[in-house]
Amino acid sequence: MKTHGPPRRPSIAVTPDVTVSSPEQPFVKLELKQAYTDAVLRAGGLPLVLPLTDDAQLLDAYLDRVSGVVITGGAFDIPPALYGESERAGLGPLKPERSAFELALLRAALARKLPVLGVCGGMQLLNVAFGGTLIQDLPTELPAARSHEQKHDRTQPQHPVEVAAQTQLAEALGGKGQLMVNSTHHQAVKVVAPGLIASAVAPDGVVEGIEATDGASFVVGVQWHPELMVDTVPANLGVYKALVARARERRH
Fold it and tell me: Residue 241's domain spans which residues?
Protein backbone atom coordinates (compact mmCIF):
# COMPACT_ATOMS: atom_id res chain seq x y z
CA MET A 1 0.00 0.00 0.00
CA LYS A 2 1.31 3.41 -0.97
CA THR A 3 1.67 5.83 1.93
CA HIS A 4 1.70 9.58 1.68
CA GLY A 5 4.32 11.60 3.53
CA PRO A 6 4.06 15.21 4.63
CA PRO A 7 3.24 17.80 1.94
CA ARG A 8 6.18 18.94 -0.13
CA ARG A 9 7.76 22.10 1.23
CA PRO A 10 7.57 25.15 -1.06
CA SER A 11 10.94 26.82 -1.66
CA ILE A 12 11.23 30.28 -0.09
CA ALA A 13 13.98 32.68 -1.19
CA VAL A 14 15.63 34.52 1.70
CA THR A 15 17.96 37.48 1.12
CA PRO A 16 21.18 37.66 3.15
CA ASP A 17 23.18 40.60 4.43
CA VAL A 18 26.61 41.33 2.98
CA THR A 19 29.67 42.59 4.84
CA VAL A 20 31.68 45.59 3.74
CA SER A 21 35.27 44.80 2.77
CA SER A 22 38.11 46.43 4.68
CA PRO A 23 41.91 46.04 4.87
CA GLU A 24 41.37 43.83 7.93
CA GLN A 25 38.56 41.80 6.29
CA PRO A 26 39.13 41.97 2.52
CA PHE A 27 36.75 39.12 1.66
CA VAL A 28 33.08 40.02 1.52
CA LYS A 29 30.81 37.61 3.40
CA LEU A 30 27.15 36.76 3.12
CA GLU A 31 25.52 36.71 6.56
CA LEU A 32 22.09 35.79 7.82
CA LYS A 33 20.55 35.30 11.26
CA GLN A 34 19.51 31.68 11.55
CA ALA A 35 16.18 32.78 13.01
CA TYR A 36 14.96 33.64 9.49
CA THR A 37 15.57 30.19 8.07
CA ASP A 38 14.36 28.51 11.26
CA ALA A 39 11.07 30.41 11.01
CA VAL A 40 10.61 29.38 7.37
CA LEU A 41 11.33 25.76 8.30
CA ARG A 42 8.95 25.83 11.26
CA ALA A 43 6.28 27.31 9.01
CA GLY A 44 6.65 24.41 6.57
CA GLY A 45 8.81 26.02 3.90
CA LEU A 46 12.24 25.23 2.48
CA PRO A 47 14.50 28.30 2.80
CA LEU A 48 16.98 29.04 0.02
CA VAL A 49 19.48 31.83 0.73
CA LEU A 50 20.23 33.84 -2.42
CA PRO A 51 23.69 35.18 -3.30
CA LEU A 52 23.64 38.80 -4.44
CA THR A 53 23.73 39.52 -8.17
CA ASP A 54 23.09 42.39 -10.56
CA ASP A 55 22.39 39.98 -13.44
CA ALA A 56 18.72 40.06 -14.43
CA GLN A 57 18.93 36.59 -15.93
CA LEU A 58 20.17 35.19 -12.63
CA LEU A 59 17.33 36.92 -10.80
CA ASP A 60 14.88 35.19 -13.13
CA ALA A 61 16.66 31.89 -12.57
CA TYR A 62 16.32 32.35 -8.80
CA LEU A 63 12.63 33.12 -9.06
CA ASP A 64 12.01 30.19 -11.42
CA ARG A 65 12.99 27.94 -8.51
CA VAL A 66 11.07 29.47 -5.61
CA SER A 67 7.45 30.01 -4.64
CA GLY A 68 7.87 32.90 -2.20
CA VAL A 69 10.35 35.56 -1.08
CA VAL A 70 11.51 36.99 2.25
CA ILE A 71 13.33 40.34 2.13
CA THR A 72 15.24 40.55 5.40
CA GLY A 73 16.49 43.45 7.50
CA GLY A 74 19.95 44.52 8.57
CA ALA A 75 22.02 47.23 10.22
CA PHE A 76 21.97 49.61 7.25
CA ASP A 77 19.68 52.15 5.61
CA ILE A 78 18.06 52.32 2.19
CA PRO A 79 19.64 54.97 -0.08
CA PRO A 80 17.28 57.99 -0.10
CA ALA A 81 17.86 58.40 -3.84
CA LEU A 82 15.72 55.28 -4.32
CA TYR A 83 12.71 57.23 -3.04
CA GLY A 84 13.58 60.61 -4.56
CA GLU A 85 15.16 62.31 -1.56
CA SER A 86 18.60 63.56 -0.58
CA GLU A 87 20.52 62.33 2.45
CA ARG A 88 19.67 64.09 5.73
CA ALA A 89 21.04 64.17 9.26
CA GLY A 90 20.69 60.88 11.11
CA LEU A 91 20.97 58.65 8.05
CA GLY A 92 22.91 55.49 8.86
CA PRO A 93 25.35 53.44 6.78
CA LEU A 94 24.27 52.36 3.31
CA LYS A 95 24.79 49.14 1.36
CA PRO A 96 23.86 50.22 -2.17
CA GLU A 97 24.69 46.87 -3.79
CA ARG A 98 22.45 44.97 -1.40
CA SER A 99 19.61 47.48 -1.74
CA ALA A 100 19.84 47.38 -5.55
CA PHE A 101 19.79 43.57 -5.56
CA GLU A 102 16.84 43.33 -3.18
CA LEU A 103 14.86 46.01 -5.01
CA ALA A 104 15.37 44.27 -8.36
CA LEU A 105 14.47 40.90 -6.81
CA LEU A 106 11.40 42.37 -5.13
CA ARG A 107 10.12 44.02 -8.29
CA ALA A 108 10.64 40.83 -10.29
CA ALA A 109 8.83 38.79 -7.62
CA LEU A 110 5.94 41.25 -7.57
CA ALA A 111 5.70 41.09 -11.37
CA ARG A 112 5.29 37.32 -11.04
CA LYS A 113 2.75 37.79 -8.22
CA LEU A 114 4.84 35.67 -5.87
CA PRO A 115 4.04 35.84 -2.16
CA VAL A 116 6.40 38.33 -0.51
CA LEU A 117 7.25 39.10 3.11
CA GLY A 118 9.35 42.15 3.98
CA VAL A 119 10.86 42.18 7.48
CA CYS A 120 12.03 45.41 9.15
CA GLY A 121 14.26 46.99 6.47
CA GLY A 122 12.56 44.63 4.03
CA MET A 123 9.23 46.27 4.85
CA GLN A 124 10.75 49.69 4.22
CA LEU A 125 12.08 48.52 0.86
CA LEU A 126 8.65 47.13 0.00
CA ASN A 127 7.18 50.58 0.57
CA VAL A 128 9.89 52.14 -1.62
CA ALA A 129 9.26 49.57 -4.38
CA PHE A 130 5.62 50.67 -4.53
CA GLY A 131 6.58 54.37 -4.65
CA GLY A 132 6.44 55.37 -0.98
CA THR A 133 8.94 57.30 1.14
CA LEU A 134 10.78 56.80 4.44
CA ILE A 135 11.56 58.70 7.60
CA GLN A 136 15.36 58.69 7.45
CA ASP A 137 15.83 58.93 11.23
CA LEU A 138 13.02 58.76 13.78
CA PRO A 139 14.78 60.68 16.60
CA THR A 140 15.61 63.53 14.18
CA GLU A 141 12.41 63.74 12.16
CA LEU A 142 9.86 62.49 14.69
CA PRO A 143 11.30 63.34 18.11
CA ALA A 144 7.94 62.75 19.82
CA ALA A 145 8.08 59.07 18.85
CA ARG A 146 9.17 56.55 21.46
CA SER A 147 12.48 54.74 21.09
CA HIS A 148 12.25 52.03 18.44
CA GLU A 149 15.73 50.63 19.04
CA GLN A 150 15.42 48.39 22.05
CA LYS A 151 18.54 47.61 24.07
CA HIS A 152 17.28 44.43 25.77
CA ASP A 153 16.89 40.88 24.44
CA ARG A 154 15.26 41.04 21.02
CA THR A 155 13.33 37.84 21.62
CA GLN A 156 11.33 39.94 24.10
CA PRO A 157 8.80 42.62 23.16
CA GLN A 158 9.37 46.37 23.29
CA HIS A 159 5.94 47.86 22.58
CA PRO A 160 2.46 47.00 21.29
CA VAL A 161 1.10 47.50 17.79
CA GLU A 162 -2.53 47.74 16.79
CA VAL A 163 -3.30 45.36 13.93
CA ALA A 164 -6.09 46.53 11.61
CA ALA A 165 -9.13 44.34 11.11
CA GLN A 166 -9.84 42.62 7.79
CA THR A 167 -6.19 42.58 6.74
CA GLN A 168 -3.97 39.71 5.70
CA LEU A 169 -1.74 40.54 8.65
CA ALA A 170 -4.66 40.17 11.07
CA GLU A 171 -5.56 36.84 9.51
CA ALA A 172 -1.96 35.64 9.76
CA LEU A 173 -1.71 36.63 13.43
CA GLY A 174 -5.02 35.10 14.40
CA GLY A 175 -7.07 38.28 14.61
CA LYS A 176 -7.02 42.05 14.84
CA GLY A 177 -6.14 43.99 17.94
CA GLN A 178 -3.02 44.48 19.99
CA LEU A 179 0.19 42.48 19.55
CA MET A 180 3.43 42.91 21.49
CA VAL A 181 6.46 43.21 19.18
CA ASN A 182 10.18 43.83 19.34
CA SER A 183 11.71 46.97 17.83
CA THR A 184 15.11 47.36 16.18
CA HIS A 185 14.82 50.24 13.71
CA HIS A 186 15.56 53.96 13.46
CA GLN A 187 13.91 54.45 10.06
CA ALA A 188 10.23 54.01 9.26
CA VAL A 189 7.60 54.40 6.57
CA LYS A 190 6.71 58.05 6.03
CA VAL A 191 4.24 58.11 3.13
CA VAL A 192 2.56 54.75 2.56
CA ALA A 193 2.86 53.94 -1.14
CA PRO A 194 -0.07 53.75 -3.53
CA GLY A 195 -1.27 50.18 -3.69
CA LEU A 196 -0.41 49.57 -0.03
CA ILE A 197 -2.21 50.18 3.26
CA ALA A 198 -0.96 50.46 6.82
CA SER A 199 -2.04 47.24 8.53
CA ALA A 200 -0.38 47.84 11.92
CA VAL A 201 0.53 51.01 13.82
CA ALA A 202 2.46 51.65 17.03
CA PRO A 203 0.92 53.84 19.78
CA ASP A 204 3.11 56.76 18.68
CA GLY A 205 1.76 56.58 15.13
CA VAL A 206 4.75 54.85 13.53
CA VAL A 207 3.62 52.47 10.78
CA GLU A 208 4.51 48.88 11.79
CA GLY A 209 2.81 46.86 9.07
CA ILE A 210 1.90 47.34 5.41
CA GLU A 211 0.30 45.15 2.78
CA ALA A 212 -0.98 45.24 -0.79
CA THR A 213 -4.54 46.40 -1.25
CA ASP A 214 -5.45 44.13 -4.16
CA GLY A 215 -6.10 41.18 -1.83
CA ALA A 216 -5.19 38.73 -4.57
CA SER A 217 -1.57 38.19 -3.56
CA PHE A 218 0.29 37.93 -0.27
CA VAL A 219 2.45 41.07 -0.14
CA VAL A 220 3.04 41.92 3.51
CA GLY A 221 5.65 43.92 5.42
CA VAL A 222 6.24 44.05 9.17
CA GLN A 223 8.54 46.53 10.87
CA TRP A 224 9.42 44.16 13.69
CA HIS A 225 11.22 40.78 13.63
CA PRO A 226 8.58 38.05 14.08
CA GLU A 227 11.19 35.32 13.52
CA LEU A 228 12.90 36.30 16.79
CA MET A 229 9.67 35.97 18.78
CA VAL A 230 8.15 32.69 17.62
CA ASP A 231 8.68 31.21 21.09
CA THR A 232 8.09 34.25 23.31
CA VAL A 233 5.02 35.58 21.42
CA PRO A 234 4.00 32.51 19.37
CA ALA A 235 1.44 34.35 17.22
CA ASN A 236 4.41 35.79 15.32
CA LEU A 237 5.07 32.47 13.57
CA GLY A 238 1.73 33.01 11.86
CA VAL A 239 3.33 35.62 9.59
CA TYR A 240 5.70 33.00 8.18
CA LYS A 241 2.97 30.35 8.09
CA ALA A 242 0.80 32.65 6.00
CA LEU A 243 3.64 33.26 3.54
CA VAL A 244 4.36 29.53 3.23
CA ALA A 245 0.67 28.69 2.83
CA ARG A 246 0.36 31.08 -0.11
CA ALA A 247 3.67 29.85 -1.54
CA ARG A 248 2.42 26.26 -1.38
CA GLU A 249 -0.36 27.25 -3.78
CA ARG A 250 2.34 28.23 -6.31
CA ARG A 251 4.83 25.54 -5.35
CA HIS A 252 7.78 24.74 -7.65
Answer: 11-18+27-249
38 closest CA partner among 209, 178, 182, 155: 155
Please list, in sequence order, all residues whose beta carbon lies within 8 angstroms of the beta carbon of residue 137, skipping any fewer than 6 positions away. 88, 89, 90, 91, 92, 186, 187
5 within some domain: no
> CATH number, domain at 170?
3.40.50.880
Catalytic residue, from 24, 31, 120, 159: name it: 120
For the question of residue 211 being annotated catalytic, the response is no
User: From first to last of its 252 residues, what are the pLDDT tens digits of the chain?
Assistant: 555 677 789 999 999 999 988 888 889 999 999 999 999 999 999 999 999 999 999 999 999 999 999 999 999 999 999 999 999 999 999 999 999 999 999 999 999 999 999 999 999 999 999 999 999 999 999 999 988 999 999 999 999 999 999 999 999 999 889 999 999 999 999 999 999 999 999 999 999 999 999 877 899 999 999 999 999 999 999 999 999 999 999 865
Q: How many CB atoms lie within 10 A of CB 236?
A: 26
Mark whether 162 is an active-site residue: no
Number of domains forming the structure of the chain: 1
d(CA 10, CA 180): 29
- Residue 32 located in a structural domain: yes
Q: Which of 4, 87, 227, 252 is flagged as catalytic? A: 227
Q: Exactly one of 148, 185, 186, 225 is catalytic; which is it?
A: 225
